[in-house]
Design a protein that fits this description.
Elements lengths: L12 H6 L7 E2 L2 E2 L1 E2 L10 H14 L9 H20 L7 E4 L2 H13 L8 E5 L8 H5 L3 E5 L9 H7 L4 E7 L11 H10 L4 E4 L11 H4 L3 E5 L10 E5 L1 H6 L10 E5 L2 E4 L13 H17 L1 H19 L5 E3 L9 E6 L4 H10 L2 E2 L1 E3 L4 H6 L5 E5 L6 H17 L2
Parallel strand pairs: 3-15, 5-6, 5-7, 7-8, 8-9
Antiparallel strand pairs: 1-2, 4-10, 9-10, 11-12, 13-14, 14-17, 16-17
Bound molecules: pyridoxal-5'-phosphate.
Length: 409
Amino acid sequence: MSAVASAAKPLDLAAIRAQFPILQEKVRGKRLAYLDNAATTQKPEAMLRAIDYYYRHQNANVHRAVHELAERATTAYEGARDRIAAFIKASREEIVFTRGTTESINLVARSFLQPRLQPGDEVLVTGMEHHSDIVPWQLAGAKTVAAPVLDDGSLDLDAWKKLLGPRTKLVAVAQVSNSLGTINPVADIIREAHARGIPVLVDGAQGIAHLPVDVKALDVDFYAFSAHKLYGPTGFGALYAKRAHLEAMPPWQGGGDMIRTVAFSGSTWNEVPYKFEAGTPDMAGAIGCAAAIDWLDDIGLDAVAAHEHALLEYGTRRLAEVPGLRIIGTAPHKAGILSFVMDKAHPQDIGSVLDMEGVAIRTGHHCTMPLMERFQVPATARASLAVYNGEDDIDQLLAALQKVARLFA
Ligand code: PLP
């Protein structure tokens, strides 16, 4: 039971698991050990019920009608904005609803960065960024400069500092690396960048469900995340941005709801954050996300982080037992991600054998091609943890990996 003990509040793993219907599924006739949580998390009953309730009792288009259902929908939808804002200690006007991390970053690239760019201007990223935190800056016309990653998967902070220069228009960094699990020193990064007047975007895709976030204490300019990695629905996410930035940024998509007035001679924009939310939004997505947050907050992120950390330590120890296995990413500050390669088996083969044993992991470049090149591997196998995982999942992973080692000896 060591993995479920935490300084904050011990987790009742059985009770938590009972809230995830999908965990009862048998896969390939075996017990499911779901260890692909960095790709997407499974969904608790409370979140499924919130979406079901919305469509059964509240569904109507928001903001634009006087009838009772529209009122219910709008109240639930805007209530979700309050809940999401409170979760990261933001004000509701600073929360723009998007389709997820990727769209949130594209919004910043198009609406904040692009109008400020001069030829040769740079966005300073890190060598461990997800493609979503590289390509949007390039599409906007910026040069992406990447700070190096050390052999253990930590960011080389000294080198990062030296790359901050007069051409740096924005700093963008993952809170947690999806491929390595490294927790980046985002507070230090923000402080250093701000000392030079450079704004910072934190890609919170892998942080939001695992570490408490306080955007005000961090003083971060932009924070992006997806609901589906937070026990919420797919296709929904948010961008936090400082209000002053949002006020100064032009809209990036046109349509209903984002306007104040429309005339053929020209149009004017709605107030923030609606200026950035064109068209009928994903009401159920927002409501589901808020329900997932309620559910997670009830457990408490400190307890979640402690549980996942203990499990990460257990998994790291157990993986060392597998012949020919090498973990990629051993930074001292890590979240629950175990990326590895094996001497004789390709990650694809590892994934296939594990699947036959009921173990769901991800294999590939994890949308971090430059990082794979840095570690000179074509791909890794990645087991990623969530609050419902326990030592039994790691043990099942271990047994399957021992089988891989035997098959590819
Ligand atoms: N950034 C990181 C670090 C990620 O891990 C991911 C998804 O895996 C993304 C961005 C993109 O998230 P989404 O596909 O939900 O937009």
